[in-house]
Amino acid sequence: MYAITAANGQLGRLVIEVLLETIPASQIVAIARSPQKAADLGSLGIAVREGDYDRPETLASAFAGVSKVLLISSSEVGWRLPQHKAAIDAAKGAGVGLVAYTSILHADTSPAKLAQEHRATELALIESGLPHVLLRNGWYNENFLMALPAVLEHGTLIGSAGNGRFSAAARRDFAEAAAVALTAEGQAGKVYELAGDEAVTMSEIAAELSRQSGKPVAFQNLPEEAFKQALVSVGLPEVLADALADEDAIAADDTLFDDGRQLSRLIGHPTVSFRETVAKALAAKI
């Protein structure tokens, strides 16, 4: 059986959608902090189980009888390592045969604050002795569109990445990669640096938004601290805003660029371009 943690999240939902194309629903376990929010998955024949990273006692039963687990990293920056360790311990106790972990691009060398907890989780997996595969995900195209209405309204895209290149891909691409890593044979011990086939800069992103929307959009490069405060001002927790601003500033040195094309090779087709993601997002607003 294949278990997906954080099954109610955007990535988790997509992974399950992809798995259902080739795997019977009866072989899929959706693990969620709030199982009631995954009732629709249960109606498909998927086993829905409670599993909360902050309540280790729920994880042992969540992983019972499971052969492979997709451990989707927690969204709680600053508290992810103990959460991930709880999941790893539970997986080991349940006799899970493979853990696929969603890490970050170049986790072993990245100077980004966001990479620290991922690097520590990778080490915890190694120390656990569990067979595992590391999915070092790059930036999602969708990350650039989270404030799309405000960007189009004000005509300004802000950040601190300068002319840094982002080898981004659609969230669906990364979901497909996770599904392959779970279902294909011989994945234990592999490390995938997953990034989009094309790279874009923030200025190119602004230009594409302007071209497709018909509204003028310009990129405004801010000092890291100013970008952090801008993120805080729209409601992000300070620890998350700090990590995101740090990641953006470091991206100016191409830390989120990778031209190895491991992602497209793994999923068997080119990755979705930023242009396509923008078109889909704008169409959804109509």
UniProtKB/TrEMBL annotation:
Root EC class: oxidoreductase
UniProt domain NmrA-like: residue ranges: 3-258
EC number(s) from the headed UniProt entry: 1.6.5.2
Keywords, ordered alphabetically: Oxidoreductase
Name the UniProt record assigns to this protein: NAD(P)-dependent oxidoreductase
Cited Pfam families: NmrA (PF05368)
GO MF annotation list: NAD(P)H dehydrogenase (quinone) activity
Keyword Oxidoreductase (UniProt): yes
UniProt superkingdom: Bacteria
Native source species: Methylobacterium brachythecii
Keyword Oxidoreductase: yes
InterPro entries on file: NAD(P)-bd_dom_sf, NmrA-like, NmrA-type_oxidoreductase
